Structures are given as C-alpha cells and as structure tokens.
Give the backbone structure.
Amino acid sequence: MSNESILRQEILERVKEIYRLRKEEEKFNPGKTKVNYSGRVFDEKEMIAVVDSVIDFWLTLGINGRKFCEDFKNYLGVKYCLVTNSGSSSNLAAISALCSPIINNPMIAGDEVITTAMTFPTTLNPIIQNRLIPIFIDIEEDTYNIDASKIEGAITSKTRAIVFAHTLGNPAEMDKIMKIAKKYNLYVVEDTCDALDSYYDGKKCGTFGDFSTYSFYAAHHMTMGEGGAICTNSLELYRAALSIRDWGRACYCQTGEANPMGACRHRFDFKFGDLPEGYDHKYVYNNIGYNLKPLDIQCAMGIEQLKKLPKFTEARKNNFKVLYECFKKYEDRFILPRVLPKADPSWFAIPITVREDAGFSKRDFVTYLESKLIETRMLFAGNILKQPGYKDIECRIVGELKNTDQVLERTFFLGVYPGLTKEKLEYMVSCIDEYFKK
Ligand SMILES: Cc1ncc(COP(=O)(O)O)c(C=O)c1O
C-alpha cells in the first residue's frame, strides 16, 4: 500500500470512530429533546463516502455523479437522469427544457400550464419565470393532490402542460391525469420531490410524465445535504435539461471529459448560426441556461443513501401508520389523509386538517405540540395566491379554491421520517392523547 493509501485508510477509520462516539451519545429525553419532523438518517458509510471524496478532491461532478445517475435511473427504471443542486433547480430545469428552442414542440410565453395553488413555491415558480401562465385548479380535500376531475374544465387552446406534486408522498391520480394529457397532447411534469418510492398502480411515481423531479435536501426521503435530480425517458428532453443545467451550452460531453476533442471528437467541426466555422462546441450556447450542478461530494453521499431507500420507505410507512391510528381516534376533530385505491405512498409526512367545528384551531393545536417540543410544519404555501410575493402574478383561477384555502387555514403536518424511534413516536402519541384528556 502507498503512503497515501495508508493515510487515507487511517482517516476513514477515524471517521468511523467519530460516528460511533456520536451515536453513543444520542439519547432521547421526552419533553426535553426536540422531536424533529425530519432530518438526515445516515451512518458511518455516508460519512466515509463524503470524506473519501473530499480526499480525492475532484470536487466537481465526476465519478460519483455518474455512478449516482446510473444507480438512480436503474432504481427508477427510466432512461435518463441528471443530478442537480436542488429539487427547486430540477423543477426550473425541467420546465425551462420544455420551453427550449432545441426541442420539437416547445412551450412559448403566454402558454397555459394547469397546476395547483396549494403548492411548494418552486413547483410553481419556473412556470412564472418562463413567462407561462399558471391556471389554478383546486386540490382534493383529503389526498391534498391536484383534483384530476377538474383538469379538463380548465383546458383551453393555449394549454400545454400539467405540473403538480405528489403531495407529501401521496400519489396523484396518475391514470386519469395521463389519459387527459394524452387526449390534449399536454406535457406532464411530476414533482416527485416528496414522493420518492411511492407507487401508483404498481408503477413508481415519477415514471408517468415527461419529466420527474426529485429533491435530496436533508428533509427528504434520502439526502445529499442539498441536491436533486431530473428524470425522463426522452433523449430530446434530457439534452434540453442538461443544456439548461449546464449554462445553456450545446455540448453534451461530460464535465471534465479527458479527451481534448470531447467525447464526440467534433468540438471544432460545426458551424452554428452566426458563429465562425468550427467555433469550439463547448462554448456554443443554444439555450439561456443556468448552472444548477451539485458537487461530486454530494453524489458520493447519494450513492450510499439510495442503498438505504427500501429500509427508509418501510420505516416511513410504519411511522405513518402509528400516527394515523392515533389521529383516527379523533376523526371527529380532524380530517385524516386519504389514499387512492391504486396508490401506495411512501409518506414524506402525515398531513392533518383540523375540522372547522373541532372546538380548537390549527394554531391552538400546533402551538400545543410545539410546546411539547414536537415539530410541526405548514403544508407549504397553503394557498400561494395569498402569499405576499405572489399577489400580482398573471394567472387564471378555474372554479373555487375551497380545499386550497382550507389547507391554508386548517392543515399542518407531522413528520414520519425514519429517525423517529419507537420512543419518540410513543411520546408523540401520548402528547396527542393528553390534549384530548384535558
Ligand atoms: C414538492 C416540493 N417540490 C420542490 C421542493 C424543493 O426542493 P429543494 O428544497 O431541494 O429545492 C420541495 C422542497 O421541500 C418540495 O416539497
């Protein structure tokens, strides 16, 4: 072994030891230790993978990025995967790719996109940023998903796409949505940031539409700290998204490609528009792009996290069940989440809506839980049209947004992440029960 290999081995052994020491110190003290709604769940393998990658010091996308994409697309069963630096960036690149001049049938400014106002902001933002017009329809009260029965009523000659998230991991009604998309020739973007490993009709969420997007932020089903991915089965859409992710450039050789002529060996062989003959393809820009790439170090972590996904899913499902059973006792006070007959969710969290006549408000209940150090969260923006930044956006609303408003007023969510141990769940249940004993 070389001196460097020996040193590296020593460092990685020490990292393992640090993980073990920290783990030993972890202790849950009910009422004193905060019960987070989510968090990183990892062991020494992620820490070692990250440190190993740091020691390599390649830094930018390379061997780990390529491996993660291979693993992720194999897991999903799709043809193309791109890593990004966030779920938000993934949505931005996906929607922008559908407006790219290099695809066959791009959306153009003024085209309409059907979506929901009960949303995470960066599911909606790329629609606005690409000068498309969001058309808002309501969600279902208890699945919290886009109400597929309302889509057709919102379609006009300008409608080009349906963009939605599988809310908190609960699969949307994909058969109905895809049928409508096919009938009217609409693009479908599945924001799968909260629904990794959820299934609809035996098929993974994120494998139905033209694009699916993922977030690997620390709160999500698996994490790279920050990070994301875009998946598609279309080579044309993949290349457009790749270009948008990588500054808008035309070349699709891998970053750091060793061959000076590029993987294609034709770097200096093209003529593009008004550019001089043979202008370096690496510096030809056929899209107005961004730089949305993650570091290779993040992907090293992602490779290890993906291996743990089946266990994470199992834990999420079990934890959801415990909290669902608890709230079920108080169904006269709360609206419980509903799952469609063909859906098999890997829950991001458990959404709960306080009934109008519950005798207490959402604010009362979440304040109580927070006082017990149980973290609660709002269902993202609620009705985003009521958020200060969105007051003046150009949009159209079709029908009432009654359920969307209800989320704003009366819905919150609790975590179900794999870091919730049996002790923590028991504490949560006992605090919820205590509220109703008073
Ligand atoms: C549905 C949905 N879409 C997009 C995002 C954005 O992901 P990121 O935080 O990685 O930008 C989130 C974030 O939690 C989300 O919940």
